[in-house]
UniProtKB/TrEMBL annotation:
Matching NCBIfam families: MCP_gp7_epsi_15
Species of the source: Novosphingobium capsulatum
Entry protein name: Phage protein
Length: 338
């Protein structure tokens, strides 16, 4: 059974519980950023950074015998530091425009603010997948730079050799797997601050007055256990359009590489949450997968069929019971992963 938000604390729950009146803003962002619908959100444990201790080696054990001692051993660990960044925008609406329809002033400001919300959503959604702190230190480290080599066991090569490639992702959200991180002193989600009446200058240096709103979102990503995520890379877009790429075998190959691949089906009382796995792909690939699994209803191709499920009033397609999220932040011109 696919579970999205019904059993897990997510970003919308955090903000609604906070009672800060930002529910509508965050709802708008999650509609634009599919990843946020599933995200497990945790506060940074070191200011704007989050430090995770990861086991890199198991302690050794041995068979015992009477009157013999026990060999001493210990596990090996390493510390990983993930950072956060923030995106912001400033909405300014001419006060004279608002005075023309005072009863609609709040709505007019929200309409203007929607553009900033969408821009933040697109920027954040792209950063989740492609942001690289080695390229831009203002940003946080996304997923693609972490899974950027075919030597990674959880990266499946789809065989593309050109520069028009796309990827499909399996991401497991949970405290022990992948989390969205926010600074410990900053609330999660988009912060909307009314800056009030401000005096500004036009292009000629002449003053006028506006009503300003500032929109800000702080966030980063922490991948505590890389084995629970995976990437199908080098999916040749032109071959997908031509119908010469079979996506189901690629999905199946990555599925059996994932740690705890059946974890999203179960959670027993008293156990640590195993997380929840979600598949992400762009619209073109989802359409191709849907077409691929809709042919031959006699079952002669033995493909796993996509199954639509209604989750919190939304129809979500699933593959082997794993929810699929469509996101156009996953582009069709990715560089070749070698």
């Amino acid at each position: 059974m696919a579970i999205l938000g019904s059993s897990y604390w997510n970003l919308i729950d955090v903000l609604k519980a906070g009672g800060d009146g930002l529910g509508d803003v965050v709802e708008a962002l999650t509609q634009l950023t599919p990843f946020m619908k599933d995200a497990n959100v945790v506060a940074c444990n070191s200011g704007t950074e989050h430090r995770s201790t990861i086991r890199t080696g198991l302690p050794s054990v041995s068979w015992g015998a009477l009157y013999q001692g026990i060999a001493q051993s210990k596990g090996n660990y390493t510390e990983v530091k993930d950072t956060t960044g923030f995106v912001e925008g400033l909405s300014s609406v001419d006060e004279r425009l608002l005075n023309l329809k005072p009863a609609e002033a709040a709505k007019l400001r929200l309409v203007e603010g929607q553009g900033f919300l969408e821009s933040i959503a697109q920027t954040v959604d792209s950063a989740i997948w492609y942001s690289d702190v080695k390229v831009n230190g203002k940003q946080f480290h996304g997923l693609a730079p972490r899974y950027n080599s075919l030597s990674n066991p959880n990266v499946v090569n789809a065989g593309g050799v050109q520069a028009d490639n796309a990827s499909i992702w399996f991401v497991t959200h949970g405290d022990m797997q992948t989390s969205v991180i926010v600074p410990d002193s900053v609330p999660a989600g988009v912060q909307r601050e009314d800056m009030g009446r401000q005096r500004v200058l036009d292009g000629n240096g002449n003053p006028y007055y506006v009503k300003e709103e500032k929109f800000t979102q702080h966030m980063g990503l922490c991948v505590k256990d890389w084995r629970f995520n995976g990437r199908i890379a080098n999916i040749d877009v032109s071959d997908v359009v031509a119908g010469t790429v079979a996506l189901n075998p690629l999905l199946r190959k990555l599925y059996y590489k994932l740690q705890g691949r059946r974890a999203y089906h179960m959670e027993r009382e008293g156990q640590v949450s195993p997380g929840r796995t979600v598949i992400y792909m762009n619209r073109m690939l989802l359409e191709a997968l849907d077409a691929e699994t809709s042919n031959g209803r006699s079952g002669v191709d033995n493909f796993v069929r996509l199954t639509p499920m209604e989750i919190q009033g939304e129809e979500v397609m699933t593959w082997r019971g794993i929810p699929i999220r469509e996101t156009d932040a996953l582009v069709t011109n990715e560089a070749l992963v070698a």
